[in-house]
Amino acid sequence: MTNCCGTWSRRSGMGVSMKRGKPLRRPKGVRQEQRRFLIYCEGECTENQYFRGLRSDLRALPVQICMGGEHGEPKSVVRAAIEHKKRAARSPQDRWTEYDEVWCVLDVEAPTPHAGLSDALRLAERHGIEVALTNPCFELWIMLHFTEVSGYQTSTPPRRRWRGLGPVATRPRASTWTTRACARGMRMPSSARAR
Question: What angle do CA 188, 112, 49 make, to 5 degrees?
Fold first, then answer.
């Protein structure tokens, strides 16, 4: 027999006793707030599609992706990320909350790096902005999700190969493909990775 406070039972020779069950109150505030990441990319299309796909694969991780600055100019991307980081706590679009980490994804653009790349890296460091520097370009990272790559010296060949992969190449699955891409990148000859 049960009631709202626990289980009733009859024991021989002892009348009625009550066993205590679990408390009916729910614990409050036990779920930790998830970390928030802000990612600014210099690319207009590829990086945006990749990170949006990654965000949907990692639904439990709140990631807001903002595209900032002019395409191909690292310093303007970093400046836009700095401004967004400063205004986040006062912005309803950012839920009046600062981000745990702010990242900029920048290409080296081999064979000749952007003229302002060094300045952009120093500016990011001064303002606590993390940088993911892709060398020579972001498309090489996507290529590593699908195939072994021996290395490229310029940005043009991986972009050509990436376009040939079709629409599936813009949205790799986070769990398996990203792990493969990291492993393939580490197998690239060190001379190719250092460029």
Answer: 65
Q: How far apart are CA 44 and CA 76, in angstroms?
A: 13
Separation in Å, CA 34 to CA 46, 50, 60, 97, 132: 27, 21, 8, 12, 22
> What mean pLDDT value characterizes the chain?
74
Please return the burial class of 183, using the count of CB atoms within 10 Å of its CB with bins 0-12, 13-18 and 19+: exposed
Q: 174 and 63 in contact (C-beta within 8 Å)?
A: no
**Is the pTM here over 0.90, yes or no?**
no
What residue spans of 62-173 are helical by DSSP H?
A: 74-87, 117-126, 138-146, 156-165
With residue 56 as reference, give the H or E element that holds it. Answer: helix 46-57
Q: 137 with 105: CB under 8 angstroms?
A: no
pLDDT in tens, 3-61: 444 444 444 445 555 566 777 777 676 656 677 888 898 877 788 778 777 777 777 66
